[in-house]
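Predict the assembly for these two chains.
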Amino acid sequence: MSAEIICVGTELLLGEILNSNAQFLAQQLASLGIPHYYQTVVGDNPTRIKKVVAIACDRARLLIFTGGLGPTPDDLTTETLADFFQAPLEERPEIIADLERKYAHRGGFSPSNRKQALLPVGAQILPNPIGSAPGMIWQPRTGLLILTFPGVPAEMKQMWQETAVPFLRSQGWGKEVIYSRVLRFWGIPESVLAEKVAVQIAREHPTVAPYAGNGETRLRITVRAKDEAEAQQLIQPVEAEIRQIVGLDCYGADEDTLASAVAHLLQERHQTVAVAESCTGGGLGEMLTRLPGSSLYFKGGVIAYANEVKVNLLGVNPQDLEQEGAVSAVVAAEMALGVKTRLASDWGVSITGIAGPGGATLTKPVGLVYIGVALPNGEVITREFRLSGQRGRDWVRHLSVMNALDVLRRQLLVNP
Amino acid sequence: MSAEIICVGTELLLGEILNSNAQFLAQQLASLGIPHYYQTVVGDNPTRIKKVVAIACDRARLLIFTGGLGPTPDDLTTETLADFFQAPLEERPEIIADLERKYAHRGGFSPSNRKQALLPVGAQILPNPIGSAPGMIWQPRTGLLILTFPGVPAEMKQMWQETAVPFLRSQGWGKEVIYSRVLRFWGIPESVLAEKVAVQIAREHPTVAPYAGNGETRLRITVRAKDEAEAQQLIQPVEAEIRQIVGLDCYGADEDTLASAVAHLLQERHQTVAVAESCTGGGLGEMLTRLPGSSLYFKGGVIAYANEVKVNLLGVNPQDLEQEGAVSAVVAAEMALGVKTRLASDWGVSITGIAGPGGATLTKPVGLVYIGVALPNGEVITREFRLSGQRGRDWVRHLSVMNALDVLRRQLLVNP
């Protein structure tokens, strides 16, 4: 009882659009517990579409098509499917009526829209409440179900949720739920994490799979269950075990971010933070203010890009700048304390580093970054990072912001 | 001589990540003139990967794999391909040496990384300069070429551009070039732009196609040519016509951004800018410092999120804050002038607005944003924007930053 997602459209093969439909449908199938093992993209070409259908019929019992339902000559999904299964097309008066109504205010529907009213004999209309192209629900032969959707994401999503999901459930699809929880880690490489939780990874249910991206490491815990409550009951003990083993490196789960973890800790304590940024140019402030309600814990900051700004607005000692350089632990400490003092916040966080590609010296390579954190008691700690300069300026800046959030997070946790 | 893109990863089937790799590779193949007719996504399952390989071998001569090259047990691409083509795996000392070097500063590489050093006999290493997982270039039999890449987009892209493209060209792939130039516009809706350049859009070669996204409008000029020189000769007159018609709304082309346009104008004049940000929390500074060498024109700024920061660090009049509110033209003007004065820059730019979802009043809805620009002569201008609050906080903040850059850009252009 598995499904296959088939996206039709030459614009996908040209890379003109991102295939967000496949992601949406994949998430939906996962949450309905309908397994799917393959996704295919094919252009607006009847011969190739037929080849793809032939392959898909062999390996799936539910074929979900997006794209190729429009009024133009290169929209070929419906007629190609009809041809493949040798079913005649018939014009559906309900669709004609619907199109006439929809196009009434736009000067009437054009003859080319008439094509959209053709469906194979035996297929059911899958109504499109917001766009012109309807889809279909079709069982061309026993044990094979076909759903078609237009390529426009908003239309496809609404049609999926309003009509396809209830229909699938009524037909016995999606009885079981696949539920995933993603644990998120910072400061631990994927291979080290995988070794620490090797016992959990080796288990068959729930499955635990590590992956990495954007500098963070994740573990996905997946279960198959009757409902969400049962799923959570299965996941919870595994999550607890993993958190116990890994400790502080785990900063959250699912939708959590390092910024939301920090925001949560600050709000719990009714404390505020201010930032002093050099190489990140405002990226840390930007990250901390992405969350609604950030004014509760974020006061603001100083983007001290030029050295004179570090001196004039943050009170960094010009002698330290001269002797140690702007990218140094002592300047990071002075920036963090300076911004905490001048903005009267509980915490101050600073970033100074060499984002590159220029600015490196013999002793200070691109990727050298210092993070400072001024604590509520006036103490200041600093951390040195040597990030991979080879991955470019954006990467160094991204990791600098993330590391600053992580250093602050750990200080919040160890200084209750 | 066609290609197929095969993305391996259960996270794609679960919809956890968007398949941006497929889009990137599709664009690249299109620009190299290498046809590709199918894309396939398959999970981390050797049996299914083999089925996909068998199908792809029948319909393409270049198979491009992404994903499944990591150090963990569910990374199976390389060994499954070796198994499919019955080629033994061998450990490559060069990869071991490279991994040892890369992991030296992180406490050494772990035994699981050793797996990444295994390649089929006869395969060539496709080096990964920034991550751990190398790919391979492999001709398992005559007339079939396989390239493998890690799933991490940044690594895949760099490996593609640095090694795969030169290799493919050396092998006779990508003889004809499809060359596109994208003109970029701000402050003009797609429909208005399309009407202004209707004559150009009606032409067949070069083709001109409008599209929109992220708040900006674009025109893509596309030609098919023998080489880049010929392509540029065809594109240049069309571009000149369009720029003539559209004027100031065109801010650049291809890789240009509003930030790079501003940076260019400031550098031409040897002038500097400083920013004062409220609702964007540092996003404008972050954007202006994405470009290498931004210290030449960017001095820094003040993130004046809390009102007290606006008063204490920017000299905003507390009475104006009280009477007009923080989101007002007068406060925007004072912020812009304040940051210009205190950071001793030539230009000052400010943003104050209601990003939402909270903070709206009867007269000030979510999406109301004021931009201030302080000119070198001390004059200050402000602009009011009413952005769509329905599209959410991120959208309002994004458009606020972009509009601030655009207001500054236009002031730079009209005040030479």
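DSSP finds 15 helices and 17 strands in chain B. Chain B touches chain A through 89 residues (CB under 8 Å).
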